Amino acid sequence: MKHYITTADWDQAALQEMLDLANEFKQGATSECLKNKSVALLFFNPSLRTRTSFELGTWQMGGHAIVLEPGKSAWPLEFEIGSQMDDVAEEHVIEAAKVLSRYCDLICIRAFPKFVDWQEDKQDKMINAFAKYATVPVINMETITHPCQELAHMQTIQEKLGNPKKKKYLLTWTYHPKPLNTAVANSSLLIASKFGMDVTLLCPNENYLLDDHYMTLAQKNADQYGGSFQVTHNIEEAYAGAEIVYAKSWGALPYFGNWEPEKTIRDQYKHFIVDENKMAMTNNALFSHCLPLRRNIKATDAVMDADYCVAIDEAENRLHVQKAIMSQLINQ
Amino acid sequence: MKHYITTADWDQAALQEMLDLANEFKQGATSECLKNKSVALLFFNPSLRTRTSFELGTWQMGGHAIVLEPGKSAWPLEFEIGSQMDDVAEEHVIEAAKVLSRYCDLICIRAFPKFVDWQEDKQDKMINAFAKYATVPVINMETITHPCQELAHMQTIQEKLGNPKKKKYLLTWTYHPKPLNTAVANSSLLIASKFGMDVTLLCPNENYLLDDHYMTLAQKNADQYGGSFQVTHNIEEAYAGAEIVYAKSWGALPYFGNWEPEKTIRDQYKHFIVDENKMAMTNNALFSHCLPLRRNIKATDAVMDADYCVAIDEAENRLHVQKAIMSQLINQ
Amino acid sequence: MKHYITTADWDQAALQEMLDLANEFKQGATSECLKNKSVALLFFNPSLRTRTSFELGTWQMGGHAIVLEPGKSAWPLEFEIGSQMDDVAEEHVIEAAKVLSRYCDLICIRAFPKFVDWQEDKQDKMINAFAKYATVPVINMETITHPCQELAHMQTIQEKLGNPKKKKYLLTWTYHPKPLNTAVANSSLLIASKFGMDVTLLCPNENYLLDDHYMTLAQKNADQYGGSFQVTHNIEEAYAGAEIVYAKSWGALPYFGNWEPEKTIRDQYKHFIVDENKMAMTNNALFSHCLPLRRNIKATDAVMDADYCVAIDEAENRLHVQKAIMSQLINQ
Fold first, then answer.
1. Domain named Aspartate/ornithine carbamoyltransferase Asp/Orn-binding: which ranges (chains A, B, C) (predicted)?
2. Do A66 and C52 touch (CB under 8 A)?
3. Which residue of C has its CA nearest to B302?
4. ipTM, 2 dp
C-alpha cells in the first residue's frame, strides 16, 4: 500500500500521471472514486486552502471528509513509540491511526515541526507513525515537506511554461517576522529538480541553507532528470534570466530552537522582499507563492497584483491535484 | 454581480420576492440550485443559528458548505489595503477572497466590530474587502448589520401580523453586562421602516442612539414606504399600543472603545428588561429577539415562555430566508 | 418520544434489538432513515471516535451532521432554569434546544462533569435540560454515563464471547495523572450487569467506589438478569478467572472538587496498570478500553498490542451501534 508522504518516493513519470489526471479534473472530468468512502483530515495547524480543497475534493468525488483538530476538538496525540504517556497527550497515534482506518478510507495529516529541535523534527515522526499503523493510505497535508503544494506548483508551471525542463527556476528566501517551516522550500527544490529545471536557491547566507537531505536530493534529481542545482547569496545573479520566481521564508536551521539570536540575523535581510525591481531583472518571469503571504513583507502589492503572479492559479490547482492524489491512492 | 451585504441595497419589492421564496421553502418547496456547488462560511465570531442554518440550507439545496474560522482553524486575515503585514495577520483578504472564489460559489462572512473605534468599525472593511476581491457573491452573516436576521424577522412579522404597513413596531434597548454590537438594532430599524411600519426606537438616553447613518436611513425608508420613525426615552410611551416588541442590547456609541465609563451608565438601566408589566401596556404585542438572549437580563422567563414570544419561529425562519438569499444570488 | 440518555431506561431486549441492528449494519446493511434529515452534534468536550463515527454514521444513512462546540464556535450555554444570566453564558438551553429542534431531527450531546461538585454533576443537568426542551430525540454522547460506548462494548463482547450471561467480567480502575470522569466506569457496570454477566469492580480502596446510584443499579440488574456483582480491592482475586478485563481511570468521589489531596492517594496506585502479569492470571481474558488510552500508564504496550486487546474492534463498533441508535430513535 502506497502513501503520499514525500514526492521523493515517486518518480517523475508517476507524478506526471497524477498531474495529467489533475488536468482532466480541471477540464471538468468527474469521478465517483470516493462514493460511500470517507477521508479523515487531521489538522495540528491552521489551514485555509488545504482544508477547503481537501474537503471539497472529497465531496466532489462522492465521499465525506471529517475534519479533526488534535489538541483542540480532538484529543492531543503522542507519537513516540514506547512512551510512558504521563504528559498532555491522551491518546497514542497507534490507536488513532488504527481506529481512523476502521472508519475512513484515507487519512490526511498536517503536522508542522515543533521548532525546538530540528534533528527531532526532521524525522517527521507524527506522519510516519500514522503511516506505520494506519491500514489505509496516508497523505501529507504539510509536515516538513508539502507534497500536495508541489504538484499544484508543477501543474501551474506546466500550464504557463509548457515543458519545465531546463527552464530557469528561482527559489528565493524572503524575510518574515517569524521563523517559519522549511517545508515548502524543501518541496520547491524537490519538485523543480524532479522535472529537470535549472534550479537556483537564493538565501542571505549559509545560515539559511536548507537541510542537507533536501539539497542532496535536489542535486540527485538534477543529475537524474537533466537539470541543474546551484546556491547563491547574490540577488542580482539569482534573478538574472529566471523564468519563474518562487518565494518562501524560513528560519535558519543552525539556530533552530534558539530563535532570539536568529531573529537578529533575519532582521538584516528584509530587502530580500520580491519587488518590481527584482522581477525586472528576470526573463519575464512568473511569480508564485504557496500562500498565505504577508503582503509588503515577502512580496510587494505590485508583484502580488501583477499579471505574472500565478499564486491564485496555483491555489486553485490544489483542488485538482489533491483529487488526483486521492484518486490514485484509493484505486491502488 | 450583486452581493447581499445590507438591505439598504435592496428595495422592498426585491426583499419581498426573497420573502415569498422563503415562504415557499417553508411550505416544502425544494431546490437543487446549489447542486455541485459549494459555499464558504467564514466565522470570525461564534454562531449557533447562523452556522447551522447556512450549513443545512446549503446541503438541502444540493451543495456543500465549508466552515472556516480565521484566526483559529484558518489563518488570521488582514483587510487594510496597502498594509505592510508585520502584525498577526498571515494572509490578506485579497488572496483569501480570490482563492475561495476559485473553490466556492458563494462566500458568507461573519465579522463583528473590534469595539475599539466606531469610525473604523462602521466602514465594515472586512466584508467590503471580500466583496471587492471575490469573484462570487458575498453574503453578510452579521457585521455592523445583520441582513439575514432582518429577513427572518420580517417573514415572522408577516406570518403573524399580515401586512406590516402602519403596524406599531417597537425596538427597545435592553441592558446586557457587556457592550454589544449595534448590528441587529441597525437592522431592526432598516427592515421595519422598509416595510412601512410605524417604528419607535426606545433607548435610555441620547448616548444609546444608533449611528446617524441608520437613523437617517430609517427616516428615509419611512418617508418612501409610508411608515414613520420616532425616538423616545420614555418606556410607557414606547410600549403603548405596540404590536410587536423587538429587544436588543448595545453599547453607547459616544463611549465606543472607552467601555469602563460606559458600563457605569449602562448599569443604571437594568429596568429596561422586557417583562410582563411592560408587555401588558402594548396592544397584545408579539415579542421577539434575534437570539442568543440572556434570560432575566434582557427579557424575563415569563416573556420568553409566553405564547406571544415568536423568537423560536424567527430563528427557524433563518433557514428559509437564507435558502432564498443563496438561491437568488446564485441564480442572478 | 424516547431519548437515549442512559441504558437504565432500556431493558435488555430493547438493547439487544439495537445490537442486532448494529450487527446488520456491520454486515453491510444500508439505511436511508436519515435522508433529508439532519443531526446536531454538540460537543462541550473533545472527541475523536464519537465525532467521527456520528458524523459518518449520519452521512451513511443519508443525513447531514452539524458539529457545534458551545463556548468555542458556538455561544456558551446556561442550563439552570430560572437563572439570571449575568455570567458567561450568552444563551439558555431552552432556546438552543428549541431552535435546534426546528433545524435538526436528532440532537446529540457530549457534556462532561465540571469536576467541582459531584452532587451537582450527578444530576446531569445539561443533557436533561436538552431532553426537556427539545422536540426531537436526544442522544447522550457521554455525560456522566456513556451509553453509546456501552452498546459498542457489548457488541464486541457478544462477537468475541458469544452469550455474555455468567461470563466473568472485570472492570478495573487504573491510575491516570488526572482525575477523570466516572462515566465509562458507570456505564461498564450498567451494561455488563444488564446482560447477566458476573461483574467484578476492582478499585484500590473505598474512595474509588462508584456512585451508589450505579452500584445499586448494577446489583438490581444482576438480580434481574441472572448475573452477579461484587467489589474487591484485591488484584489477584479480581483477575482470577476473568474472561474480559475492561480498564478505566476515575477520580475518587469523596474528594470530588478537592483534587489535590486526592492526587496524593491516587499516586499510590500506579501498579493498577494492566500488564501481562495480571492478564496471565485470567482465564485467557480479552482486554478492552473505551479509548483514548495513555499507554504505559493505564495499560502496557504489550497488553495494547496483544491479540486479546479488542479496543480497536470496540471503537469500530461505535459506528455501527450509533447508526442503530439513530435509526431506532428516528423511526419511533
1. 182-328
2. yes
3. C82
4. 0.97
* Residue C153 marked in a binding site: no
Q: Judge whether A39 and A66 are in contact, CB under 8 Å.
A: yes
pLDDT tens digits for range A86-126: 999 999 999 999 999 999 999 999 999 999 999 999 999 99
Q: Is C324 found in the same domain as C281? A: no
Q: What is the pTM of this model?
A: 0.98
Sign of CA dihedral A157, A190, A105, A53: negative
Is A132 contained in some domain? Answer: yes
CATH of the domain at A44: 3.40.50.1370
Residues B161 and B306 in one domain: yes
Considering only CB atoms, C102 lies closest to which of B177, B305, B316, namely B316
Would you say residue A1 lies in a domain? Answer: no
Distance CA C245, CA C308 (A): 10
Domain that holds residue C118: 7-145+318-330
User: Are residue A219 and residue A131 in the same domain, yes or no?
Assistant: no
C202 in a domain, yes or no? yes
| Grid cell in block for residue A222 | 538534477
CB spacing of C295 vs A96 below 8 angstroms? no
- Give CB contacts under 8 A, 24+ apart, made by C260-269: C262/C179, C262/C207, C263/C179, C265/C204, C265/C205, C265/C207, C266/C175, C266/C176, C266/C179, C267/C175, C268/C204, C269/C173, C269/C175, C269/C204
- CA atoms of C293 and A183, how far apart (whole Å): 32
Instruction: Say how many CB pairs under 8 Å bridge B and C.
Output: 87
Q: How far apart are the first and last CA of chain A?
A: 7
DSSP bridge pairs for B286: B244
**B86 and B179 co-located in one domain:** no
- C64 reaches A (C-beta below 8 A): no
Q: Which residues of chain B are within 8 Å of residue C72 when distances are taken between CB atoms?
A: 46
Nearest chain B residue (CA) to A180: B90
Together in a domain, A85 and A115: yes
Helix/strand/coil for B108:
strand
Asked if C123 and C161 sit in the same domain, the reply is no
Which run of H or E residues covers position B125?
A: helix B125-133
Q: How far is it, in rounded angstroms, from Cα B243 to Cα C315?
A: 55
Residue A197 within a domain:
yes
Q: Which of C86, C100, C102 sits opposite B297 (nearest CB)?
A: C86
- Asked whether the CA dihedral A27, A28, A34, A39 is positive or negative, the reply is positive
Question: DSSP E strands: which ranges in B47-195?
Answer: 64-68, 77-78, 91-92, 106-110, 138-140, 168-173
Domain shared by A112 and A50, yes or no:
yes
Judged by CB atoms closer than 8 Å, whether chains meet at A72 and C46 is answered as yes
Listed in order, strand segments (DSSP E) in C205-296 are: 228-232, 244-248, 286-288
- CA B254, CA A3: separation in Å to the nearest integer? 60
User: Which residue among B74, B96, B103 sits closest to A47, beta carbon to beta carbon?
Assistant: B74
Q: List chain C residues with CB under 8 Å of A108.
A: none
Domain count, chain B: 2
Torsion on CA atoms B154, B158, B161, B162, rounded to nearest 10: 150
Q: Which of C52, C271, C322 to mutate to test the interface with A (most CBs of A within 10 A)?
A: C52
Give the 3-state secondary structure of residue B11: coil
Strands A286-288 and B244-248: unpaired
Residues A241 and A175 in one domain: yes
Q: How many Å apart are CA C114 and CA A134, to the nearest integer?
A: 35
